[in-house]
Amino acid sequence: MTPAARPPFSLYPELDATALAAFVTALESGDVTGLPPARAAEVVEARALAVFTRGKVTGADGDLLDAALWRHTGARPRPMIVMPSPWTSLGWLTYAVQATLFAARGYNVLAYSARGFAGSEGQVDMAGPLDVADGSRALDHLIERTTGPVTKVGFLGDSYGSGISQLVAAHDTRVDAVVALSTWGDLGEAFYENSTRRVAAVRALIGAAAKARLSPQTQSVFDNVLTGSDVRGTLRWAEVRSPFTHIKELNRRQVPVFYAHAWHETLFPPNQTLRMFNELTGPKRLAVSIGDHSGPEMPGVLGLPNRIWTDAHRWFDHHLKDIDNGIGDEGQFIGEVMWSRTLEPRPTWPSATEQLQRLHLADDGELVPEAEPGEAGWTATVLCGMDTPATVADKVVESGYAEMAGRPKTYPTEDIDHTVAAVWTAEPAAETVRLRGTPRLRVTYRAANPGSTFVAYLLDTAPDGTAHLVTHAPYSDLASPPDSLISADIELQATAYDVQRGHRLMLVIDARDPFYADANLPRATLAFTSPEATPSYLELPLG
């Protein structure tokens, strides 16, 4: 019996290409037979207000980009929105419903497939100069086909399109506001987190682009990350493609930017986006939610009610239409607390953290508020090359969908082998511990061989020994001589998490996780310790 073929990997597993295509066909024909009532009503309303057409945008180097246009007739002044596609073979079709909703609200809209994807010519430049030029050409195309005066311009993208949107806004002074969903600020950090190659993320990008046409340079960079080759060259390539590199231009013009992200994002880790967000000086807003890449906003892509897309509409209404809808007064940050689904607004991201609590890594596997005199010098040895039940995620993207459904991965802490992992556990919480912000870990260890990697996981452990992942971070040292003491001072990924009364925080450090490449030699050891000069501790942000 021939096994069934596996479906191609997608960063958007919930998207139904057939349903989206039927929606677009109805936009063209007006026949809404077979559409769900809500989608049918949207088609009828949009067709009464705007003209929908498919077309081609002449991009950089003359490459034709597949596009769709929602255009109002008449001489009335209007704002417009350009939407570069995500990293998917569906191209602009991903935005069909939301672009229609924007058109119904009075915007002229152009959505296009990024070069190398779907029906667009050219090769995937990974948000490089050609993609930036394409964004400006798409804006030219929309302006040329607009009958009335253009008031203001917004760029909106999800995932890949979000990075392109920020970069176009940094280079094209006509862009007045940006919405960037599941985005990146520093692409280099998305590939190398604390000098650790994020191989699962790159494999996911390659898998999701199976039908795309990657440029030789893009393919070479992905290969470099997977094999550990030419790190400096890859970082130079990524620097140009990082909005953080061009932040001065965004700040000079005070471009309003709305970000949405996920706490357990596996493709573009949240800390690099937060760093970008903190450095923006213009109007800004950040929503961070339960889930993984593009998951929190996915219901809105499908046309369902969704607070992320609601805020995206409000953001553009405020900054492109000058509507006083209150979003400018609601504070810069709103976080969804895991797993309560409580939404907590804050004036700024830093204000989410009210105080810091330090827990020292002590002998006998304890996390203690104060290190006892004479406790320095203990050693916890980890054998490299073997995995433990502590892992980042079972699957890129899909694990986040399970979290959104209220089914986070359960970690059986009793199955963690203490010969291949170092474990420290705090006392049961006397009251709820409100983690709000970016935890920091400082730990000293000795690596017997040149090149070393570890992954630190912070777990919330219930009285029965089962645990959920709060946050994590990898760390690699590639330069220290063998048998030298290495002091690692790293940020774990930001979080908003309530540790319930009676639960314990558990710190697990092991030397292997399939999500990352590791620099350890097989059967090598890492010996964690806490010298008096550089004590090892975990710093918790409380809010």
Automatic annotation (TrEMBL):
Name the SUPFAM superfamilies for this protein.
alpha/beta-Hydrolases, Galactose-binding domain-like
**Which residue numbers delimit the Xaa-Pro dipeptidyl-peptidase C-terminal domain?**
313-539
Keyword Nuclease present in the record's keywords: the answer is no
Molecular function (GO) terms for this protein are: hydrolase activity
Q: Which domain of life is it from?
A: Bacteria
Q: Which family does it belong to?
A: Belongs to the AB hydrolase superfamily.
Q: What is this protein called?
A: CocE/NonD family hydrolase
Q: Which organism does this record belong to?
A: Streptomyces yangpuensis
